[in-house]
Amino acid sequence: METATDIRALNEIIEKESAFVELVTREMDKVIIGQRYMVDRMMIALLSNGHLLLEGVPGLAKTLAIKSLAATVDGAFSRIQFTPDLLPADLVGTQIYQVKHDSFSVRKGPIFANFILADEINRAPAKVQSALLEAMQEKQVTIGDETFPLPKPFLVLATQNPVEQEGTYPLPEAQVDRFMLKVVLDYPKKEEEKLIIRQNISAGKYPETNKVLNLDDIVKARNVVRQVYMDEKIEQYIIDIVFATRNPGDYGMNNFKDLISFGGSPRASINLALAAKAYAFIRRRGYVIPEDVRAICKDVLRHRIGVTYEAEAENITSENIIDEILNRVEVP
Q1: Which of 38, 77, 109, 154 qualifies as a FRET site for 312, CA 20 to 30 Å off?
Q2: CATH number reported for the structural domain that contains residue 274 in this entry
Q3: Residues 275, 180: contact at Cβ < 8 Å?
Q4: Which pairs from 141-145 meet CB under 8 Å and 24+ separation?
Q5: Full domain range(s) for residue 109
Q6: 11 domain-assigned
């Protein structure tokens, strides 16, 4: 009885605190036509203090969506175009010798912002990825022998093109695992594309987003998201899903044993739980249901399951494996 009362009170808090989600979405809708799935996932990353990787062919408004989200928040925004000749110093900053003072001073790089758009992240070499790794995981940057904390909130929103592979570097597994969500985008529907054409060829001014959110609102909302109630049965459901990626045989999927080279790490479990809570928050609910976990599961796990050569030969992807896991693991 007490728990029911607590959840009712929590629902009331979330109803009030999640009102800004609609405001942000409305502002995004001015600029982004369709792609509601992508916008929802961006909000989940923002509310969960996680990083987001967007993958899709050019022209699907990945960069525009990220810039638009940053424009709705009163925070610092940096766009970094990743190229093969990019150096770590171009990202994090460097030490500059001051002749006048006979000493070195630190010039901070574009990474010192609240929102980082890492455009075509797979075009940068490993040394740049390793510099970004510390920022994403530790929320800090080391320049010379000094360590600087990054501003809060700090969110990396990265894009990559899956089609053109010339001059690209595959992201290291350690870095891919740092992305809370990997969202794969598809083409817009016919009606949506018709509206996109109209918007881009009209003689009027191109729509712009307004600032409707400040940084304190985000920090406050993140604290409320963590208060969303998650039953022990839902926790067990998440554990079973992640463990099925590691030991498929234990869940009646012996045919997948030779198709999975490695499963989800503990980060997969943590991020699946956090993303499910954020999804419930966006739906203005104070508790997580199994559908929340299932809705966000592919985005959390698709980049955390390694498939073997045998799987590639049979055209089996990590998404096929996740579908099978969701069919096999018992729903509470």
Answers
A1: 38
A2: 1.10.8.80
A3: yes
A4: 141/92, 141/93, 141/108, 141/109, 141/111, 141/112, 142/92, 143/92, 143/93, 143/94, 143/95, 143/106, 143/108, 144/95, 144/104, 144/106
A5: 23-199+213-218
A6: no
Three-state secondary structure call for residue 252: coil
- And the tokens for 46? 């923002």
Query: By the 8 A CB rule, do 32 and 65 touch?
Result: yes
Residue 7 lies in a domain: no
Looking at 218, 245, 261, the residue that finishes a domain is 218
The residue type at 110: P
pLDDT per residue as tens, the chain (332 positions): 345 567 788 877 887 777 788 888 888 888 888 778 888 898 899 899 889 998 887 777 777 887 888 888 887 888 888 888 888 888 888 878 777 777 777 888 889 988 888 888 888 888 888 888 888 888 888 887 888 899 888 888 888 877 766 667 777 777 788 899 998 888 888 888 888 888 888 776 777 788 888 888 888 888 889 988 898 999 999 999 999 998 888 888 888 888 888 888 899 999 999 999 999 999 888 889 999 999 999 999 988 888 888 888 888 888 888 998 999 888 88
What's the helix, strand, coil split of the chain in %, to 5? 50, 15, 30
Total tally of structural domains belonging to the chain: 2
Residue 131's nearest CA partner among 140, 68, 122 is: 140
**What is the rounded CA–CA span in Å between residue 34 and residue 27?**
13
